[in-house]
Structures are given as C-alpha cells and as structure tokens.
Amino acid sequence: MANSKYEYVRTFEQSDILLPNTWIVVRIDGRGFHKLSDRYAFEKPNDRRALDLMNVAAVEVLKDLPDLAIAYGVSDEYSFIFHPSCELFERRSAKLVTTIVSTFTAHYVYQWSNYFPDTPLQSPYLPSFDGRAVVYPTTRNLRDYMSWRQVDCHINNLYNTTFWNMVLKGGMSNTDAERELQGTVSSDKNEILFKRFGINYNNEENIYKKGSVVFRQYQLEETKAESVSKTSQDLGEEETAAPENVSKSQQEKIRKLRRKAQVVVEHVDITKDDFWEQRPWILSGKPGKLPAEV
Amino acid sequence: MANSKYEYVRTFEQSDILLPNTWIVVRIDGRGFHKLSDRYAFEKPNDRRALDLMNVAAVEVLKDLPDLAIAYGVSDEYSFIFHPSCELFERRSAKLVTTIVSTFTAHYVYQWSNYFPDTPLQSPYLPSFDGRAVVYPTTRNLRDYMSWRQVDCHINNLYNTTFWNMVLKGGMSNTDAERELQGTVSSDKNEILFKRFGINYNNEENIYKKGSVVFRQYQLEETKAESVSKTSQDLGEEETAAPENVSKSQQEKIRKLRRKAQVVVEHVDITKDDFWEQRPWILSGKPGKLPAEV
Amino acid sequence: MANSKYEYVRTFEQSDILLPNTWIVVRIDGRGFHKLSDRYAFEKPNDRRALDLMNVAAVEVLKDLPDLAIAYGVSDEYSFIFHPSCELFERRSAKLVTTIVSTFTAHYVYQWSNYFPDTPLQSPYLPSFDGRAVVYPTTRNLRDYMSWRQVDCHINNLYNTTFWNMVLKGGMSNTDAERELQGTVSSDKNEILFKRFGINYNNEENIYKKGSVVFRQYQLEETKAESVSKTSQDLGEEETAAPENVSKSQQEKIRKLRRKAQVVVEHVDITKDDFWEQRPWILSGKPGKLPAEV
Amino acid sequence: MANSKYEYVRTFEQSDILLPNTWIVVRIDGRGFHKLSDRYAFEKPNDRRALDLMNVAAVEVLKDLPDLAIAYGVSDEYSFIFHPSCELFERRSAKLVTTIVSTFTAHYVYQWSNYFPDTPLQSPYLPSFDGRAVVYPTTRNLRDYMSWRQVDCHINNLYNTTFWNMVLKGGMSNTDAERELQGTVSSDKNEILFKRFGINYNNEENIYKKGSVVFRQYQLEETKAESVSKTSQDLGEEETAAPENVSKSQQEKIRKLRRKAQVVVEHVDITKDDFWEQRPWILSGKPGKLPAEV
C-alpha cells in the first residue's frame, strides 16, 4: 500500500543548511530558570551544584559529538562550537541545534539527583532549554563571540556577588540594593564588597568569575613571544581548504582520534591569546598529541 | 563596565520567523532509537511501555504549551501542531522547535523509571530527540500531513507485525522474513498473519494500528450529514482574520481557557472528516465548551 | 581540463525556494524616481506618459510570463502575482524576482522614447527598479495585500492632487502647502480642492484614483446576489490540490491557453468582491473562456 | 484616512539580510541568450560587439554602486562582488541583486544601438537577465570563486573556438563536430585548431580567453618576491574589524573617494596572486592612491 496521495506534504520542508566554512555556535539557555532556581532553592549568587550539573551535561554533549571544538558555559546558558570544516548532519541548522539541546537536557535531568540529592525534581516543573545557531565567518568573529560571553559572565557575576552580599549579609531589601547599584562601575562594586563585607573580589572562585570552558585535552604547546604577536595579527586567518578536501573516511578517522582525548572543564581566561595558542587544535580543527602515557 | 567592544557579534544572528497565518508542524524523532531499543530490550514489534512513555511526555508538552492545537505520535516520532494564529515566541522557528524537543526529552527521561522499572537508564546511553519545523498554508495541507503520518503508521505496523511474527513465532531468520515480504501488498501480509499465526490484523490494538492523537478535550459536536459534505468541501478554508486582530490580552485569555481543558490521548482515525468535525476547536483555534460538571 | 579544484564554491549557494501552495507577490519599485522625475520633468501630481509607460512594461511582463495571474501598479511601483499552483523556476525567489525586474526594466527603457519623445534618456541617468518577493498563505491575505496597495494609491493621490493644486494653482510654497495639509482628513482635502480650485475629486481620472490592474481577459461571469455572499464568506478557500496533481504537460497546456488571452489594463476597484467574482480565473488559476469570436 | 485594516500584510515580508563580514557575489545571467543571439545574429564563437556591450553595462553598474569591489564577466554572465565590510541596503539580498540586475539591464538596452547599429532591438524580443546572491566567508573562497569562473571561461572558449572552426571553416555539421569533440582534452583541441585551421590558440584575443575584469584603477603596487609568498600563505586572512567600527560618515567618505577612481576593463589572469597583490585595494576595501596627475 503506497502513501503517495499524501506524500506531497514533504515538499513543504525548507532547506536550513548553514553556510559552509563558517564557525557554528549553538547557544542554549535555560527556560524560565529564574522560577526554577526559586523552586529548587538554588543558592545565591551562585549555586555550585547547579553549575557543576551544567558542566557535566556539557561534557557529555562533547563526548557524544566529537565534531564539537569547544564549549563555554555561564549561569544557565552554554555555547557549543563546531569548526568551519564540520559537515555533521550536512550542517542542517535544526538538526544540529535540537541534537545538542536534547542531549544536554537528557543528561541534565538524568544527573539531577546526583547534584541535588535533597531536592528531587517534581513533574511538571522540569528543567528545559531552548537554543539557536549562529554562524561566524572568521576566527576573529568567533573569538569575539567567546570574549563577549566571558566578559558578560564577569559583569553579571560582579553585580550579583555585590547585590546578594548587600541583601543577604547587609540586610538590605532587594529594591534598596538595586537602587544603590544603579549607575555604579566595577571599582564601586569592588569597594562595596571590600569595605562592607571584607571580600576581595579577586579571591572569588574562578568558576564564578570566568565561567567554564570545555574542550578536548591534548599536550599544551609552548607559547613563544614572537608567536604571540604573529597569532594576534593573523587572527582572521581561516582554514582555507575547500570542504571537499577532507574525505568522509578522513572525517571518521578524525572523529575517532577526538574520542580518545579527555574532555576537560577549566575556568580560565579565553579573551587573551594565550589560551588559544597553547591549544592550537581548537582553532585548527586538527587533533593534537595525546598526553604521553607514563 | 561595558561589553560594547564584542557586542557586535549579536548582529550575526539571522531571523528565522515562520510565515504568519500558516500551520506550524514541529516533528521530533528519536535519535538512534534502533540501537536504544536494543540496549533497553524493547519488545517487538511494539513495546507498549515505550509508546506510553512517548505519550505521557507528549501530554506534558501540550500542558506546558497551551498554544499547541494537537499532536500525533507513532513509534519514536511525534508531531506537534500550532494553529495559524499562534504568535508564541514571535513564531521564531528555533525557539519553538527547541522548546518542544527539550521539554519532551526532560519528561521522557524523568518518567523512564515509571515505565521501565527493571531497565534503568545508563549514562551515556540516554534517549534524545531531534526536531524540525515545517509550515503548511492551508487546513487541507495540514490534514494531509496528519494523514500522511497515520497512513505511514499503518503501513509500518502491518509490516512490522508480520515480520516479527515470522521471526519470533515462525522461527525465520530476519533475512528470510525480509526477503519473503519484499514486494508484498497489504492483503498478502494480512493473509500471512491469519493463515500462519491465526492473527486477524483488525483485532490488533488501535494504539499500534492508528498511533496516538493528543488534544484538549471539550464537548464533542454532533456531526450532521449535511455538515459532513460541507466541511469536506470547504476544507481549504482558513481563519482569515489578520494576526493583529487578536490582542495580546485576548491571547492570554485563550491560553487560560485552554489550560482548563483536559489533555487526552486517543487512538482514532484522523484521515476522515469525522474526527475533525466532532472537535471543531482543533482547526478553529477557538476553545470549545468544557464537559458539563455533574 | 576539469574545473574541479574550484568547483566546490558552488556548494555555498543556499536554497531560496518559496513555500509551496502560497500566493507569490513580487513588488518592484522605481529606484530614486523622485530625482528621475525631476530630471525628465514629469508632470505633477501625475504624469500620464509615465504611468502609461509603466503599464506597457507591465503588460509585456505578463505576456512574457504566462504564470502570472494579475498585476497592480501605482506611481513607480508594480506588484506581480503568481498563483499558489505556480511552479515556475521551481519557485526560486531570486530567479522569479530578478526575471520580473529585468524584463520590466528592459521594456521600460526600450519604450521610453515612445512616451517621452522630447526628453530622451541620458546615460547614466537611466531608470531602474528594485524588487522583492513576499508569499501569502490564503486568498484573503492576497486580496488584503491588493486592497492595501489600492487604498494607498487613493490616499497618496488625494494628498498629491491637493498639494500640487495648492502649489501650482494656488501659488503656495511647498512648505506652506505641506504645513496646511498636516493633520487633515479626506473630507478636508476634498473641500480644499472644491472650494479653492473648483475641482470635484470624484471626477478625476480613474487611472490616478484607482491605479492600474493588469490581467488576462476572458468572458466575464455574471455576479448573482447569492454568489456574492458565498464568495465573500469563503474567501479563505484555497486551491487544495497537491502541487503534484498538475503534471508538467498540463502546466504547459495551461500556459498556451493563457498566451491566447489578451492582456488588458483597467482602472477599477479591486477592494470589493465584484471584480474577483466576475473574473474567477484570476483566483482559481484556471483559464476562462476566450471572448466569442464574431 | 488610515490604511490600518490592510496594513497587517506587511508582516509577511521575511528578512533576507546576508551574513555580515562575508564577500557578497551577485551573479547575473542572460535569459534565453541562445535564442537571442540567433535572433540578432551574434557572431560565432564570440561576438565582440556583444561582449563590449556587456562590459560597458558592467562599468556603469560599478560607477553607480561605489560599494562594488570588482566584477568579472564572460559570455552572457557577470559576477559583481561586494566587500565583507559592505553595508549597502543593510545587506538585504533581494535589494542588492535586483538593483544590480535592473541597472545592468537598463544600460544594456540603452546602449544596444551603439554596438548593434544594424540590428535594432525588436519588442518583445528584448534582452533580460536573472541573478542571485551567494556569500563567501574568506578571501580564499572568494578568489576560488573568481578562479572558477575564469577557468570556466577558458574551458568553454577553447571548446567553442574549436567547435565553430570545425563547423564554419571545416564544413562539418554541428552534430559531427560535437561528436568528434566528445571526450577530448585541451591538447586535442589545440591540435585540431592548429593542424586543421592554422590557429595558435595562445594568439587568440585575451578578451575571449580570459574574460573581462572590471575594477577601480589606482596606482599599482610593486610585487616583491617575499610579499608574494606571504600573501599566498595568508590568503584566508580577513578584514577583522567589527562592522560597527566604520561609521556611516566614514563609509560615505570612502564612497566619494571611490567615485573619483576610473573604472577600467582588463582581460588578465585573476587566478594567480599577482593580480591581487598589485591591486591591494580590491581585497582590502580601502581606496588606493589615485594615479599622479601630470
């Protein structure tokens, strides 16, 4: 029995293939996490358990999708990056985004009880995430995107740390704290923290100040002085090979190499050149050397 | 501290707003469910627990998103339908698709242990789903889409029921069964089932033959003979009001009314007019009458 | 000699196929026609030669593309409409839009000297047009689009007629006339025209008040009272046949029938039902009866 | 009088903004030029008048749109290139493509009689062009696109030159010539030309062998040996400044500078580095030095 009478409806699907040879950024965000964090009593200004849960889910996504080059997470959002040479799912936008969103959600829900043993999830109040894909033509644009998110992390964390200290330790109302912070600059907030609460913001934990960077670990490259300036200058440089030049079997081989690498989470500065120069495999898309076994 | 130096990267996001006044179909599919069903020992040809789990997740999605008009599920796929008047998330495609995929995944993982108490999920082998949005301009196109999926359900289920009986009860190898079924039509399969295994396909359960239809329950309308032909003839007719004619507050009011209705799962024929005429609220987008309380 | 080394660049072309079963509107606009009308001394408020030139170019476009159902022009803009069943150029947006823009431009430039014999075109000050495609899901949406343009025509023409009479006959400066008209409604402008210049706006030529409607001429259908209300009510009704149902050879046959019909220009009301009921071939996409030969 | 009742139809227009920081290629092609060249008796294999007419139209397009960096033409097609920093028409695809197609068509029709004084255009057989936009993320991709078109020019011209000599001078039928050429490589065709017709393909005119390159002329830069290799190596390097960094007034200033430069047509090799190194303003997007006035 054929299904031909109705099958014409398939022609209504429209192509959503992302431009070749561009960086693909899939950013996901918690849906209604303000309410969710109230319901499950997340700690303020940062709940370490919630961040660790985000990170473990992100690590699983990177393990599941060897095509991913790097990811960056802060608060209830995570950005996952595919290299310009990525051909996964023929670069179909919806397929890439939903695969990441769904895999992330599955691990987040599955691992919840390991991180919040005392506050089990209660249906229908389950965590969920939305997402979108954006493409960037050059490495400079990609690095600026990453810097944008990390600078945002810093701005928000300094604000939140100050705000919640004023409220929780200083006994101020939310409204009063908000009003006092309006129009302040970074140094003002640093001063409030130090003078009123004896807190040196620089000593706060890096996971809060820098967010979380997730990537495959290979042997670090040494950074030479001259290479720094060179890289800095050539940042726009792209992998110029035509997409066709990497065969399907080569791609599969690269995927296997990537699966062997350990996926790690670090809380480091990614706005500077150092991070990228020491880990050239992230921007090059070519697997590095596995750490020597002893 | 401003973030202006990097903020330009936001301009790279491209609009993905779906055409107004069209039906939005979001179809999600299990990723690698062939492997998954092996790992967790799903029963063949149909695993009732797995279908019930799909359905409970779909019901939660409809409860969470009152804008949804109806959903249809078969095997490891589900189609969720928004009415042409839907303005949720400004009709942004990625936002609509990822919200559904993520909410569905969360409930599927969360409820797993209720349906598979003896085969708990094991990381990293977690279920996940991908998805995409397609829009349809007319009610005829939408109904043809729904019929396409239900006819597909029937074709696949008849095949699978025959195949697995030949293998499991008939002791044939997969290859032999496949070869014998090649080129057969429905009546051939019905005969195999009946003659060899004493199975009358018509007596199989509707959940397997018809799939699952999920919608809000209001009082059914009576179907009159004349109305049948009329509806049949006017099927292309659309809600012609301009999108602006429904104010935001009216939309919110409609959402509240919808939340009051019970979300039900039925296993019925949706290729004929009857289903749609008795439940005019699905195609009209206007809430029906709640069942009278006794 | 192969070209394979560079041919990969073709993969960067992205699909721009318009949604099936929707009305396609291609609207073109004169580029910088304010300057152009000054340079070639167009008459104010309307230059009949310029409008006739627009119309002759539009007629040639309809003759060249039998897939076009109707067109509507006002001032230096023209809207060309393809029926939902149109499969021309596989419905590729750029191909449809550029073909219309280029064909229109070619005839406009070619015919210029017939309409402006005393003011020949001077390079590089040549007329040109830009364009875009928009799709509409229902006939109601399409007719509202057409009404939008015709109501716009009326609003602008009443304003311009009043303004230029105040300036050219009334001796006012542009600024003074503009200031006086600010905030006026239709009846105010009608009164200014009548009291100061003895002009009854209703007696102005229809080409200025109604714009120009271009379509293929067949035998008009009689409009019955009941049919009026019916059509009015069923306006959202679509051609519901699947695109596949019309074969390529049938399409070619329809094209030939259409080429036989005369393309006419009329200046009539298209906001009411009458126009569309008398010419059912426009919305149905099926050629009417050719006028009886005597 | 307001137009609000119908104005909602504007919301159906969908965004078509091209990805920022990418090269925009608008390629236009003659519609049905095979027939057209027969009707107006174009010479075979190349009609110098037709190519000169294409080129003069392209030059006018570059003069009209200072944002254009370069154009390349062969046969009845032309590619126009905008720099990644281009913000013209907010990078709306349809607007960019139709403006180029229409301006090109206007000049082509207007200038026809200067190049074909003995075969005037006859309505409705007017030349027209279709077009499309494609974006390329890196300079390497852009240069590969340009090389693709120029290599195609060479392949086609060698074939056509051989074919038409076999037919016109050799007295062969089209079918016989086609059959003999099937499967031949370049050297075969060179030999046929030389042995049978005494033609050294290398001595053919460059306009036929290389196509036409159109750009703004500034003082050429000297090419140093080391710079050659450097450029070659850094080809993927992009203009990395954020789009915002160039203000609107700066853009206008750059446009004025560009208008002062002469637009020239050359028939040179653009697949090698030399062309691009000597004219760095094309890839940099920054105007060069105007030739010293004597």
TrEMBL record, chains A, B, C, D:
Instruction: Determine the domain of life of the protein's source.
Output: Eukaryota
Q: Ribosomal protein among the record's keywords?
A: no
The chemistry this enzyme catalyses reads:
a 5'-end ribonucleotide-tRNA(His) + GTP + ATP + H2O = a 5'-end phospho-guanosine-ribonucleotide-tRNA(His) + AMP + 2 diphosphate + H(+)
Q: What EC number(s) is this enzyme filed under?
A: 2.7.7.79
Sequence segments annotated as region (Disordered)? 226-253
Residue span(s) of domain Thg1 C-terminal: 140-271
- Cofactors, names only: Mg(2+)
Where does the tRNAHis guanylyltransferase catalytic domain start and stop, copy by copy?
Answer: 6-137
Q: Which InterPro entries match?
A: Thg1_C_dom, tRNAHis_GuaTrfase_cat, tRNAHis_GuaTrfase_Thg1, tRNAHis_GuaTrfase_Thg1_sf
Q: Name one Pfam family in it.
A: Thg1C
Q: What keywords are assigned to this protein? A: GTP-binding, Magnesium, Metal-binding, Nucleotide-binding, Nucleotidyltransferase, Transferase, tRNA processing
Which family does the entry's similarity section mention?
Belongs to the tRNA(His) guanylyltransferase family.
Function in brief: Adds a GMP to the 5'-end of tRNA(His) after transcription and RNase P cleavage.
Name of this protein: tRNA(His) guanylyltransferase
Q: Say which species the protein is native to.
A: Aspergillus lucknowensis
